[in-house]
Design brief:
- The complex is a heterodimer of chains A (about 250) and B (about 260).
- Chain A has about 250 residues and is an alpha/beta fold.
- Chain A is about 35% helix and about 25% strand.
- Chain A contains 9 helices and 10 strands.
- In chain A, the strands form 2 sheets. Chain A has a 6-stranded mixed β-sheet with strand order 6-7-8-3-9-10, sandwiched between helices. In chain A, strands 2-1-4-5 form a 4-stranded antiparallel β-sheet, with helices on one face.
- The longest helix of chain A is centred in the C-terminal third of the chain and has 18 residues.
- Chain A is globular and about 55 Å long.
- The two termini of chain A are about 35 Å apart.
- Chain B has one domain.
- In chain B, helix 3 runs parallel beside helix 6 and helix 4 crosses helix 7.
- The model of chain B has no long low-confidence stretch (mean pLDDT about 95).
- The chains are: A alpha/beta (about 250), B mainly alpha (about 260).
- Chains A and B meet through helix 2 and strand 6 of A and helix 5 of B.
Chain lengths: ~250, ~260
């Protein structure tokens, strides 16, 4: 039943002009599960996330969050549903004019200037969870390295304690060691906070580490889904070609 | 024959495309402005952000606006004197200077200068936020970008630009006075009395009404083009240019329409 799932996508389609990005996507994500969607760049992974968040409206299909269809909701109802989500953006998307502590507590104050000791403490607590000390509280995002910015973005995403967290290419732009640190952090946070997680990535090591289940998006459809252990012996020609990174195969 | 027919059809089709494109643009701007106004009515409000923008738009524009006004007022006085001396009409200098500045030059020059400073900055800032996904991040952090980013800029521009225009008017009149008294040998007291005599409350109200429109267009164009930016650094550059050019055109067009209606 749909009620057992946290997120359900039913026959979701989206085209930008002549370009059919999604063409009937069906996907169910269970409560407390960590799911990864893999696929080529431009295969519609980001669009899928943005549609679930209500940032982009699908041309067709239904998107259920806790059994409630979010397609066509008004601004206020959408705001209520969005409060369930946290998101880690690919480029971190920190607000560069604000100090780190205000970035982390942004959702809690809805962007209002609240200079309270409590907010700084909450910021420090969340930064500690991602392995950052309180010395970064008053720095600006540009004063941090890419890996540290990613951690701050992670702290910002978990600060309001969302039920669902999206990770958009969490390891892109990081060296393999820093990438693995972020992977470990994500696994730890997902377990500790008991959230439902959806990751989109083309980093196989990351997908295998973060996700319980993996789905592959190709030409606007989910062509394979299965547990992460089956990723390298899926028997699916698309998945095989993708995980082995071969130029020849059914994917052109 | 058929070739000529095709050419004619293609010609009209291209005109149609242009017109439809222009109408779509107007519609999008109207939806954007309407959304901002309706969202700004309901909480949460961001008075801190309005103050921040008042500083950006009002306070930091003062030097450039002051210079524009004093230089233009001074040049205007000299030109009016030179032209007037051909008809023995040099006594009209104070009246022409005060009316030209308050009714036209003050609002328009301030509008253009502030558009150059502010529309571009808004488009660049919001456009960068768009292409680095900071706008999407706002939304996922329970904050409405219309209320948090756009509404404070519109409100601040609506307040700041009229105030800037009043200040520029005073400085511009002073520029004319300065040249007239110290270079063209006008009597200081007489010059001020004539200026005062010709200036009416209606003129000031017109100047304020115009400048409120200009302020609205300045912020609206900056925010709208920034909000729609796409395609990385080049996209932000395009958005900035579009913001300034469209703000300039809207200011000059609305100025002409208001002037023709009010004084026609």
């Amino acid at each position: 039943m749909a009620e057992d799932y946290k997120i359900v996508l039913r026959d979701v389609a989206k085209a930008f002009g002549q370009n059919r990005v999604l063409d009937g996507v069906n996907l169910e994500i269970e409560r407390g599960e960590s799911m990864a969607i893999i696929g080529q760049s431009g295969s519609g992974k980001s669009v899928t996330l943005k549609m679930i968040l209500g940032l982009i409206r699908p041309d067709r299909g239904h998107i259920l969050v806790d059994g409630e269809d979010v397609v066509g909701l008004g601004a206020r109802a959408l705001g209520r549903v969005r409060a369930k989500f946290g998101m880690l953006f690919q480029g971190s998307a920190l607000f560069d004019s604000l100090p780190i502590w205000r970035n982390v507590t942004f959702a809690l104050t809805e962007g209002r200037m609240v200079h309270s000791a409590r907010m700084r403490r909450i910021a420090a607590e969340n930064l500690e969870r991602v392995g950052l000390g309180s010395e970064v509280l008053d720095l600006k995002p540009s004063e941090l390295s890419g890996g540290m910015q990613k951690r701050v973005a992670l702290a910002r995403a978990i600060a309001p304690r969302p039920e669902i967290i999206f990770f958009d290419e969490p390891t892109t732009g990081l060296d393999p060691i820093r990438a693995d640190v972020i992977n470990d952090l994500i696994v730890e946070l997902v377990e500790d906070l008991g959230v439902t997680a959806l990751t989109i990535t083309h980093d196989m090591a990351s997908a295998r580490k973060i996700a319980h289940r993996v789905a592959m998006l190709y030409q606007g459809k989910i062509v394979w889904r299965g547990p992460r252990d089956r990723l390298y012996d899926s028997g699916n020609p698309y998945v095989d070609q993708f995980v082995q990174g071969r130029a020849e195969g059914p994917i052109r | 024959m058929i070739a000529i027919f095709r050419l004619i059809v293609a010609f009209f089709a291209s005109i149609g495309r242009l017109l439809i494109g222009a109408l779509q643009g107007v519609g999008r701007v109207a939806v954007f402005g309407g959304t901002t106004v309706s969202r700004a009515m309901r909480p949460p409000y961001y008075p801190g952000r309005v103050l921040e923008q008042l500083m950006q738009i009002g306070w930091y524009s003062l030097p450039v606006v002051g210079m524009t006004a004093i230089f233009s007022g001074a040049a205007l006085a000299q030109q009016t004197f030179t032209a007037g001396s051909r008809f023995n009409a040099t006594s009209t200098v104070p009246a022409i200077v005060v009316l030209a500045i308050v009714r036209e030059l003050g609002p328009v020059l301030v509008g253009l200068m502030v558009a150059g400073r502010v529309s571009s900055a808004m488009a660049a800032e919001i456009g960068t936020m768009r292409v680095t996904e900071q706008l999407d991040a706002l939304t996922t952090l329970r904050t409405d970008p219309y209320r948090y980013l756009i509404a404070p800029r519109l409100i601040a521009a609506l307040i700041a630009v009229p105030v800037l225009v009043l200040i520029a008017n005073a400085i511009g009149i002073f520029g004319g006075y300065f040249v007239s008294v110290y270079k063209l040998d006008f009597n200081a007291v007489g010059y001020l009395q004539t200026s005062r005599q010709y200036l009416t409350g209606t003129d000031l109200q017109m100047a304020l009404a115009k400048s409120a429109f200009f302020g609205f267009f300045i912020a609206l164009m900056g925010c709208y083009h920034g909000f729609r930016a796409q395609g990385g650094a080049a996209g932000v550059g395009r958005a900035t240019t579009d913001a300034v050019v469209s703000a300039f055109i809207l200011i000059l067009l609305s100025n002409m329409l208001i002037t023709l209606m009010a004084f026609g």
